[in-house]
């Protein structure tokens, strides 16, 4: 567990040029706090304590401004820069080494049962204000520009620069 916490701190230091040291990251990075809280909520969710997981994740959202459903799957070295207004839905799957900026939504497009949120491949960066909606896949190494609306699959190593509001 301590190795994973240290890995998270190192990831923040590597991803954010404004981060000066591990203590600052530990105490003042809501994206990191939301991730750690998600891991607890996800554990509860996966062990049948769904209501407790939802209550805990709601408390985390209130404290951090970042909403991550306890059912979401998040890989290693995930980093949320700034974080306010990030929303990650229940069936979202996020790979390793993914970075989200503030106000990103990984949401659904309907009310159907089953997988309805995006799958984000490894080494993806999603810019501020982007909306990635539906059961779609964002390929490994892709970059999504700020304020971009994505509703279709994106191939690996694609750079999406189309600006949409």
TrEMBL record:
Subcellular location: Cytoplasm
Main subcellular location of this protein, as a coarse class: cytoplasm
InterPro entries found in the cross-reference section: Hexapep (IPR001451), LbH_SAT (IPR045304), Ser_AcTrfase_N_sf (IPR042122), Ser_O-AcTrfase (IPR005881), Serine_acetyltransferase (IPR053376), Trimer_LpxA-like_sf (IPR011004)
Annotated keywords: Acyltransferase, Amino-acid biosynthesis, Cysteine biosynthesis, Cytoplasm, Repeat, Transferase
EC identifiers of the protein: 2.3.1.30
Key word ATP-binding present: no
Pathway the protein takes part in: Amino-acid biosynthesis; L-cysteine biosynthesis; L-cysteine from L-serine: step 1/2
Pfam families: Hexapep (PF00132)
GO molecular function: serine O-acetyltransferase activity
One Gene Ontology cellular component annotation held by this UniProt entry: cytoplasm
The keyword Cytoplasm is annotated on this UniProt entry: yes
Catalytic activity: L-serine + acetyl-CoA = O-acetyl-L-serine + CoA
GO-annotated biological processes: cysteine biosynthetic process from serine
Family: Belongs to the transferase hexapeptide repeat family.
PANTHER family noted in UniProt: SERINE ACETYLTRANSFERASE
Record protein name field: Serine acetyltransferase
């Amino acid at each position: 567990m301590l190795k994973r916490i240290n890995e998270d701190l190192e990831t923040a230091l590597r991803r954010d040029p404004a981060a000066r040291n591990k203590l600052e990251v530990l105490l003042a990075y809501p994206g990191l706090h939301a991730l750690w809280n998600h891991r607890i909520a996800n554990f509860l969710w996966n062990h049948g304590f769904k209501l407790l997981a939802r209550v805990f994740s709601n408390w985390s959202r209130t404290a951090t401004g970042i909403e991550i459903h306890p059912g979401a799957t998040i890989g290693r070295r995930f980093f949320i820069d700034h974080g306010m207004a990030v929303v990650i839905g229940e069936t979202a799957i996020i790979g390793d080494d993914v970075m989200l900026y503030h106000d990103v939504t990984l949401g659904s497009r309907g009310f159907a049962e089953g997988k309805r949120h995006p799958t984000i491949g490894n080494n993806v960066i999603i810019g501020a204000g982007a909306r990635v909606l539906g059961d779609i896949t964002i390929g490994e190494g892709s970059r999504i520009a700020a304020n971009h609306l994505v509703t279709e699959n994106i191939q690996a190593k694609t750079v999406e620069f189309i600006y949409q509001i």
